[in-house]
Each structure stands twice: as structure tokens, then as C-alpha cells.
Design goal:
mainly alpha; about 250 residues; 10 helices
Length: about 250
């Protein structure tokens, strides 16, 4: 109740005082998250799914305020809170399909925020969150069906690529540093997932296919914007994928 009241107060105050309203919104969402965490941890109230849904809904209000008032800090705060939420449900971290499905919904929401507001740093933040959740699987700390999660990795990379490309094409301020970081990080993220989870006989063809996507995308961006930096980054990612595909095809040593 207290968290919900803070959210309502923040939504009311943000119309005149953006910073003050934003503080109350984040405070309210954080209060909801911590209360549900205590309920799950100490008293086993709710189910992990219902707790996660309530946490997610509280962050949605923060994200909507960030979109409505074009406030980057609020949008990033909402994304971070949504990313932390699965860790607060006290759920056994064994159903990774549900976890990555939730992350996919969060990433889609982040992509929508980026397309509406043009705040491309949010894509970078979303990539960081997904990468952190991927680390246990990439380094074999968690036992799961890596082949299924690889499909999620494809979906994440496709969303990041499309959002990143759209951000570069729409950029008017000339600042493309976040886009360059996202492009390089997305290529590395995808390459590591393929090398870690794909079957050996398919690695080279999968990497080659994504190489074509990245290099073609870099060329189209250059044709549309005449900006060389994104072209160099995406082309560099393509060259790295070509090298990885060659190594996979020749089993490394050859």
C-alpha cells in the first residue's frame, strides 16, 4: 500500500516537478519490490510468478512516466528494477525458460521505450542485463537446455540489432557512442552464445549467417547516413564472425 501510494504521489507530482515526481515513482516501485521480497523470503507469501508480475507492474509505471516525460533516468531505473526483480522472488532458479521469457518481455519493452523516446542508452543497459543473466549458462555454472536458450539469444540479438539500427538512422544529435558500444557488445554476446551452445556441425553456418546480417546492416546504415563509425563497428563484428566461423569449420588448429 505504501509503495502504491508513493507511485501515485510521484505520478501526480511529476506533472510539475519531473525530478521530484521521478524520485517518488522510483521509491514507490522499490518499496513494492522490497516488500514482495520480504513476503517471499520470510513468510513464503504469494507464488514466485505472482510476485514477479506485481514487481513488473510496479516498474511499468516508472517506465511509462519515463516515456511520457522523455526522461532517460526514469526509463533506465525502470529497466534496472525490472532486471533485478527475478532475483527477489525467492524462486528456485531452475526454470530458465520462464526466466528468459520474462527477460524477453523486458527487452521488448525497453525496445519500445527506445523507439518512442530515442534514448538509445536504454538498449545498452538492456544488453548488459541480459548478458549478466547469460553468464551462468555460458560458463556452464547452470545445467539447462542450452539449445533452447540459444534461440532466446537469437531473439535478443535480433531485437538489439533492429533497435540499434533504428537508433542510428534516427539520431539527430550526432552522438552515436551508445550505439557503437551496443553494436560491438551485441556481436560479442551472440558470438559467445553460438560458440558455447550451438552444435559443432552447425556453428560455422550459423555464425556465417549472422555475419551476413551484420555486414549487410552496416552497409545499409552507411548508405542511409554516410556515418563511418557504425559501419566500421558492424563490419568489424562481421570480420570477427568470419574468423570465428573459419576456426569452427577448421576445428581451430588448422
Amino acid at each position: 500500500v505504501a509503495g502504491a501510494l508513493f507511485i501515485v504521489l510521484g505520478w501526480w507530482r511529476i506533472r510539475k516537478y519531473v525530478q521530484q515526481g521521478g524520485i517518488f515513482l522510483v521509491l514507490g516501485s522499490t518499496t513494492v519490490l522490497l516488500t514482495l521480497f520480504a513476503a517471499r523470503e520470510a513468510y513464503d507469501f504469494f507464488t514466485p510468478l505472482s510476485a514477479l508480475l506485481m514487481m513488473f507492474m510496479s516498474t511499468v509505471f516508472v517506465a511509462l512516466a519515463g516515456v511520457k516525460y522523455h526522461n532517460r533516468d526514469l526509463a533506465v531505473a525502470a529497466l534496472v528494477l525490472a532486471g533485478i526483480a527475478p532475483q527477489l522472488t525467492n524462486a528456485p532458479m531452475t526454470d530458465y525458460i520462464e526466466l528468459f521469457s520474462y527477460l524477453l518481455a523486458v527487452v521488448l519493452g525497453a525496445a519500445w521505450v527506445v523507439l518512442v523516446t530515442g534514448k538509445r542508452e536504454i538498449t545498452t543497459a538492456a544488453l548488459v542485463i541480459v548478458t549478466l543473466y547469460s553468464l551462468p549458462h555460458l560458463f556452464s555454472f547452470a545445467q539447462t537446455d542450452a539449445g533452447v536458450l540459444l534461440l532466446f539469444a537469437y531473439a535478443f540479438s535480433a531485437i538489439f540489432f533492429l533497435t540499434n539500427t533504428s537508433g542510428i538512422l534516427k539520431a539527430k544529435d550526432g552522438t552515436i557512442a551508445p550505439d557503437i558500444v551496443t553494436a560491438a557488445g551485441n556481436g560479442l554476446f551472440l558470438l559467445v552464445w553460438i560458440m558455447a551452445a550451438a552444435s559443432d556441425e552447425w556453428k560455422s553456418i550459423i555464425i556465417s549467417s549472422w555475419m551476413i546480417v551484420f555486414t549487410a546492416g552496416s552497409f545499409l546504415i552507411f548508405k542511409a547516413t554516410r556515418k563511418l563509425k557504425p559501419f566500421y563497428v558492424y563490419a568489424g563484428v562481421g570480420v570477427a564472425m568470419l574468423a570465428a566461423a573459419t576456426a569452427a569449420e577448421l576445428k581451430g588448429a588448422a
